[in-house]
Sequence to fold (278 residues):
Amino acid sequence: MKKIIDLLGITLGAFLIALSIDVFLAPNKLVGGGVSGIAIILYYIFKSPVGITMLLLNIPIFILGIKILGSSFGFKTLYGTFMLSFFVDLLNLFKLPIIKDPIIATVYGGILGGLGLGIVFKYGGSTGGTDILAQVFSHFSGLNLGQSLLIIDGIIVLSAGFIFDFVLALYALLVIFVQGYSIDLVQQGLSYTKAALIFSDRPRDIGEKILKELGRGVTVFYGMGLYTWKEREILYCVVNQSEVGRLKEIIHKNDPKAFVVITPAHEVLGEGFKSFKQ
Fold:
């Protein structure tokens, strides 16, 4: 059952990416990086079908993905690559509305394409091209997929600026930024939660107040400051965004000299937050 759901997810993602290419990117010569960008360039030079060109260009990259990321990845990638190429050429047969405004095309093309890629990645697949290279790069570098895709596609887009127009290349770079954010949005979700590290001389008082007044769990870590070389208790807790103000009030009331670090927690799973099954 899970395999069927994965394939349906990859299909949906590929369809969204194809819409992004046919409606927003290709009509405006926005080379959003990767194989699709190269295929768009070749389309305007040789009038070659974008979908088939993408499929042919993906063959050597696909072989690399299998060797580095495994055969199961290879099957899902083959499926995603074929479906994207299929949808790109299929949608071209219909009279879809074409957006010729480069600003609108940049924003909505980037969002739609990024959401599609994020969905494909979420279900363990890829649509070929630099998605594969991004996953390989992420595998070795530790960077997230959005960052990896940004680096690889940025190089390609800058190169495409010499072929088309550097103004269009700047728009295309914005497409990549928007895509990267949208990918991470699908992968990690919106940051509605915050994580706090609290350094205080009164950690027990602050911790008890957080437990009683906010109803949030608190964890104690033991650390040592290099300046004093004294061991101290460090509090760690996760709260909803709406609770941050109350958290700061509790800390300040109990220890005005406390040092606090509050950072986004993109995805929190467990009691009091999102279920693992969602």
User: Anything to note?
Assistant: Residues 193-265 form a domain with the Alpha-Beta Plaits fold (CATH 3.30.70.120). The longest strand covers residues 231-240. The chain has a mean pLDDT of 86.
